[in-house]
């Protein structure tokens, strides 16, 4: 049953002095913005509103405010609960009474997974409309760029990915042995053997010679053989589980089958690599986040990043008005038209000007954005330019828009440094969409609070 808020006042609400109940200026503005009913609407659409059965959910207004504080101050779930519980100001902001027990961290985790990424996207849209009503959001100019949000994974190698698969399979079989010992008979724990082989790879690579790479391939082949044997034994365990009717055993069986399937994919991938095929489409780079992909953005410090590509759209007011998280590494020039269309859908009108880097540029895109209603498109052409194109790009308005575009790099740096977009702590594409969405929501709330506080002075 959906519970939006706690309506009843507590004794502490009347006893506390006004000085204590007063929130800091910027936090008070964020509190006022989040009071709007439009922020509750996405949750109401997610739940059947007529049903009165079942245990009530954790109040939505408390959940939303807790998640904003979490991202605003880069706190983990356990740290968030502790810090809010110890602070009268944060309790008041989250509408949690002083004598009210704090929720368990798992309550927030389950809620975030249940509501998913679509609710976060709708919350961002609701905030944009609210800021437009308050006349602090301008949307005549649009700049868009892409970056990579890295997954929270270790650096992948074929051998370590297989090691992860063996570890998970062995752990699941160990759990099955506790409730159905007959099913796990004959399964051998070979994690120590694989660990020894992984350590030998590190020793070999210190030599930095051609022969060392050939030896690494031979060691990887031996890791593949061990992993195949583990998968074969795990399949035998799955077959034996059919004979028992215990519920826990069947739950572990489902997870074990998933782990076996993924490990099989990693085995086939590793075999391709040791046979000489180094470039593999849709290469899996993590056992625990199999949707993450290797992405090259041409950075000197990081040749390859592992995670998800993110498009960031920003207007002249400094607000992020649109974003999208992509699986894989689509070309930038395929993402400009969706960005302009998303802007039109949000605000009902095309931006007057659009500025991007040369990665988004093409004749097709320039014609398309003009057809959508954009009057000035500052898209530097790739490759060698003719005299007419050079004169076009030397016009003052074109250069002004490029200077405006360059400032977008600072915004992306801020999002990565302060709002967590450097590394996603949630797994999978859906989890990363939620992570990025909450980071952008918190950034826009902070930006709005600063602008409204400055206007009030």
UniProtKB/TrEMBL annotation:
One of its GO terms (biological process) is DNA transposition. Residues 314-445 form the Transposase IS4-like domain. Residues 25-114 form the Transposase InsH N-terminal domain. GO terms for molecular function: DNA binding; transposase activity. It comes from the Bacteria. This is Transposase family protein. It comes from Thermobacillus composti (strain DSM 18247 / JCM 13945 / KWC4).
């Amino acid at each position: 049953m959906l519970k939006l808020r706690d309506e009843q006042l507590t004794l502490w609400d009347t006893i506390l002095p006004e000085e204590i109940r007063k929130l800091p200026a910027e936090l008070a503005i964020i509190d006022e913005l989040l009071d709007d009913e439009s922020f509750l609407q996405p949750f109401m659409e997610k739940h059947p509103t007529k049903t009165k059965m079942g245990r009530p959910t954790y109040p939505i207004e408390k959940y939303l405010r807790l998640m904003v504080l979490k991202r605003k101050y880069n706190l983990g779930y356990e740290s968030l609960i502790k810090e809010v519980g110890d602070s009268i100001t944060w309790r008041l902001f989250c509408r949690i009474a002083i004598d009210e027990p704090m929720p368990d961290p798992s309550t927030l985790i389950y809620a975030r997974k249940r509501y998913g990424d679509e609710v976060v996207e709708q919350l961002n849209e609701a905030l944009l409309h609210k800021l437009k009503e308050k006349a602090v959001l301008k949307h005549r100019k649009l700049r868009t760029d892409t970056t990579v949000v890295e997954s929270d994974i270790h650096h992948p190698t074929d051998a370590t990915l297989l090691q992860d698969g063996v570890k998970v399979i062995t752990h699941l079989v160990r759990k099955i042995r506790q409730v159905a010992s007959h099913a796990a008979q004959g399964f051998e724990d070979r994690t120590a053997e694989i660990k020894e082989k992984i350590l030998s790879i590190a020793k070999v690579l210190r030599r930095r010679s051609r022969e060392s790479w050939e030896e690494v391939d031979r060691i990887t082949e031996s890791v593949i053989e061990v992993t195949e044997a583990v998968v074969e034994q795990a399949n035998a365990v799955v077959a034996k589980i059919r004979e028992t009717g215990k519920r826990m055993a069947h739950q572990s069986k489902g997870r074990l089958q998933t782990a076996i399937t993924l490990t099989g994919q990693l085995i086939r991938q590793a075999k391709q690599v040791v046979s000489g095929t180094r470039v593999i489409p849709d290469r899996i780079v993590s056992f625990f986040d199999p949707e993450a992909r290797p992405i090259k953005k041409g950075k000197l410090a990081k040749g390859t990043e592992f995670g998800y590509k993110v498009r960031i759209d920003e207007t002249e007011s400094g607000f992020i008005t649109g974003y999208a998280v992509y699986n894989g590494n689509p070309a930038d020039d395929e993402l400009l038209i969706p960005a302009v269309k998303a802007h039109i859908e949000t605000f009902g009108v095309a931006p007057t000007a659009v500025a991007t880097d040369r990665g988004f540029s093409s004749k097709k895109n320039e014609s398309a954005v003009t057809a959508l209603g954009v009057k000035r498109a500052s898209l530097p052409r790739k490759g060698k330019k003719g005299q007419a194109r050079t004169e076009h790009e030397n016009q003052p308005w074109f250069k002004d828009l490029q200077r405006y575009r360059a400032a977008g790099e600072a915004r992306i740096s801020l999002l990565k440094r302060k709002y967590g977009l450097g590394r996603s702590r949630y797994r999978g594409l859906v989890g990363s969409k939620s992570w990025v969405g909450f980071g952008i929501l918190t950034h826009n709330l902070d930006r709005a609070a600063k602008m409204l506080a400055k206007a009030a002075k």
